[in-house]
Amino acid sequence: xxxxxxxxxxxxxxxxxxxxxxxxxxxxxxxxxxxxxxxxxxxxxxxxxxxxxxxxxxxxxxxxxxxxxxxxxxxxxxxxxxxxxxxxxxxxxxxxxxxxxxxxx
Length: 105
Hints:
By secondary structure, the protein is an alpha/beta fold. It has one domain (3-104): Glutaredoxin, CATH 3.40.30. Helix content is 34%, strand content 26%. It contains 4 helices and 5 strands; from the N terminus they run βαβαβαββα. The protein has a 5-stranded mixed sheet. The longest helix is centred in the middle third of the chain and has 16 residues, at 31-46. The radius of gyration is 12 Å and the shape is globular.
């Protein structure tokens, strides 16, 4: 199951997590974001005990979006121990998300 990240809970949910976190920066109006969403939901179920998968709506959460310089969506950032360790911009197949995730778990 994915969780909703916001400007208000980002630090606790993502930066202070004891598990690796994948953050999907998306927007309702973004077509490619709608393609990535179900893939990340699958990954959240496949890795439910090892990884947190969060979705952050860029339109509703400008502070985090600006802090990480998100200019294109979908952008997926991979965090471990509060630090960005990898990034994926654009819609890609599930195996590409998983290949970036595997070294973190």
